[in-house]
Every structure is written in structure tokens, then in C-alpha cells.
Design a protein that fits this description.
This protein is of the alpha+beta class. A 5-stranded antiparallel beta sheet has the order 1-2-3-5-4, with no helix packed on it. The protein has a two-stranded antiparallel ribbon with strand order 6-11. A hairpin with a 3-residue loop joins β1 and β2. α3 packs antiparallel against α9, α6 runs antiparallel to α8 and α8 runs antiparallel to α9. Keywords: ATP-binding, Kinase, Nucleotide-binding, Transferase. It holds the Pfam family PK_Tyr_Ser-Thr.
């Protein structure tokens, strides 16, 4: 980056290969909020075959830069500000604005705000990615989960991928982040492991991948997807499945399949079982709720297969109509940012 930044010791996120730290602009006339940054730093290599691992990390880094840059700019995509050479021995770090409001689930749990407006923003963001042939590949509201025997709580240091930006009018704008698993269609990916929360992952991805074994960390199962399968498994349709599950969680306040463990979810997928509406009673408080549930079912269509699902653009359009009918203010910043046309 052309501007000098200072990376602090404040850790704000932990991922499979990288840590995210707070940083600030040096010698900047930006205000306090604009001056705060998040820097994703890939860890130094201290294990295994260093050369091969470095090649994998380089591919991850290049792929993330390529897809994240292609997605710019959009109100519902976290801005990518550039790369920063952190210190010797590290790969270049990725720089973005810091979002102190946290992730979308943190925000809705603490603020009384129209969840449907947030849902529309998330759908608009994914529709924009798909308009540019970008598949996110790992859309979920928070990742991973930190579990105890009786409880499942978000890890405050987990790497979030739907963040909240508070605009100058004080309105929350959801922004899709974490492009570490994203890919551009027709561009070959890399070999890696998809560390994911199963309840947000499309059944064709789970059921077509190698049979999962008992993971070392049950709260964060790992699915190894060879590079020659990745382009086939991660699709716009699998993204839309994830979108439907994310919107269900945001709108109702309860995660999909709330009574099932991750391994039970795989069985439910094999039996083509959808989420059950009675498990999400708070959804009744959503404006035009009678339209929302059928829309979500179109996102997670399981009996007819992925091709029968709606598109992210169709989902966003359907969400925006009731907003115009039921709210006076709506979220202008969201509805004005429909997907850019493919050029």
C-alpha cells in the first residue's frame, strides 16, 4: 500500500491459515473510524513440507486477491484496500476497513433493527458477486462455532464473513467478507480443505465430497475437496442454498436445523428434509412473513435439485418488494445497489 500503516497486537479474528489484527493509518487526516483497519496476516510456516505448503498459501492469497478485487466496489461487499508487507517471512497481508459493529448476528442480537433490510443487503451482495461470476463458496453468518457440551456460542475471535458497516446516517449495512474460499467461474481453483459449518453448506457439496470422518474439532468439520472437484461442487446454486440458510438465521434469530447436530444434518440432507417452519416462531414477526417462507424454500430447494433454486438476484428482488410496501424508510443504501451488469 502507498500509505504507511501500523499493525497493532490487537487480535480481532482467527482463521485456518491467517490471523486478523487491528491496524491504523499513520500520518492520516482520516477521522477515527476511517483510520481503523483490519489486516489479514497469513501465519509463518512452521510445519510440514514448507515448500508445498507455501505454494498452497500463495494460491490462496492470489485467489483471494483476485476474487475480492473483482467484486469491488459494492455497498454490500467489504472494501478491499490493498496489500501490506507486514514483516519478513510473512506473505503479503490483506487490508480492509475495520468494522467495530461486528458480524450480522452480533448486531441483530443487540439492536432492534429491521432484519429484513439486513437480509436484503446480504442478498444484494451475493447477487452482485454472481453477476461477476464469483462464487463465494462459504457464506455463513459466523464461523467457526465454539462449543461446550450444552451450548454453542460464537467464538469472538472467529473470522466473520458477513460484517456490519454503520454508514454516516447511522444505518447498518451488511457487507460480505472473507473471500478465502471464493472463486471465479471457469478459473481453476486450488487444492485445500473447506472448513465449514455443515448446516449452511449445500447438501450436494457435503454428499459429493469424500465421506467425512470424525474431525479433530467437532465444532468445525473439515471437508477435503480436491481441486478437480472444487469447480463442480461450489456453484452459484450452492451459494444460494447458503444464502437461504443465512437469511433464515438472520430473520428468525435461530440457526437452521436448531435441534440437529452436524452429523444429524447430513442424514437429514440424505432424506431431503428441509428446515421446519415451527422451529422458527420469530419469523412470524417479519413483514410479509407469508411471502418469506416460500422464498426461503426456493433458496434451499432440495427435492428437485440445485437447478430448481432461485437466483440470488431473484431472492433480492423478492425481498425488496415487501420492504417498499411495508416500510417508509427502507434501506436506500441497499436497494440502490442491485448487481452490476456483466460486461
Amino acid at each position: 500500500m502507498h500509505h504507511e500503516i501500523l499493525v497493532t497486537d490487537k487480535l480481532i479474528g482467527i482463521g485456518g491459515f491467517a490471523d486478523v489484527r487491528r491496524a491504523i493509518w499513520m500520518n492520516s487526516d482520516r477521522d477515527e473510524e476511517e483510520g481503523e483497519l483490519a489486516v489479514k496476516i497469513f501465519r509463518k510456516l512452521k510445519f510440514g513440507d514448507r515448500e508445498n505448503t507455501l505454494q498452497v498459501l500463495n494460491r490462496r492469497l492470489y485467489g483471494e486477491i483476485q476474487t475480492w478485487s473483482r467484486a469491488q466496489p459494492h455497498a454490500n461487499v467489504l472494501p478491499f484496500l490493498g496489500i501490506h508487507y507486514y514483516e519478513q517471512g510473512h506473505l503479503p497481508a490483506l487490508v480492509s476497513p475495520y468494522r467495530p459493529a461486528g458480524d450480522v448476528l452480533e448486531y441483530v442480537s443487540q439492536h432492534d433493527y429491521k432484519r429484513r433490510s439486513l437480509a436484503l443487503g446480504i442478498a444484494n451482495g451475493l447477487a452482485h458477486l454472481h453477476a461477476w461470476d464469483i462464487v463465494h463458496g462459504d457464506l455463513k453468518p459466523v464461523t467457526p462455532l465454539s462449543k461446550t457440551p450444552k451450548h454453542s456460542l460464537p467464538n469472538p475471535l472467529s473470522q466473520k464473513n458477513i460484517l456490519i458497516h454503520i454508514d454516516y446516517e447511522g444505518k447498518p449495512i451488511p457487507q460480505i467478507a472473507d473471500f478465502g474460499r471464493a472463486k471465479i467461474l471457469h478459473v481453476k481453483g486450488f487444492t485445500g480443505s473447506l472448513r465449514t459449518t455443515w448446516r449452511y453448506t449445500a447438501p450436494e457439496v457435503l454428499n459429493s465430497s469424500p465421506t467425512p470422518t470424525t474431525p479433530s474439532t467437532p465444532e468445525s468439520p473439515v471437508i477435503a475437496i480436491p481441486s478437480d472437484q472444487e469447480n463442480q461442487l461450489l456453484t452459484k446454486q450452492s451459494d444460494v442454498w447458503s444464502l437461504g440458510m443465512v437469511l433464515l438465521h438472520v430473520l428468525s434469530g435461530k440457526e437452521p436445523y436448531p435441534t440437529l447436530s452436524d452429523f444429524q444434518i447430513v442424514i437429514a440432507f440424505l432424506n431431503k428434509e428441509e428446515p421446519k417452519e415451527p422451529d422458527h416462531p420469530n419469523l412470524a414477526e417479519c413483514p410479509a412473513k407469508e411471502r418469506v417462507w416460500p422464498l426461503l424454500r426456493r433458496c434451499w430447494e432440495i427435492s428437485k435439485g440445485p437447478e430448481a433454486r432461485c437466483s440470488a438476484k431473484e431472492c433480492a428482488a423478492a425481498l425488496s418488494v415487501p420492504l417498499k410496501e411495508h416500510t417508509a424508510d427502507s434501506s436506500v443504501a441497499l436497494t440502490n445497489h442491485m448487481p452490476l451488469p456483466r460486461q
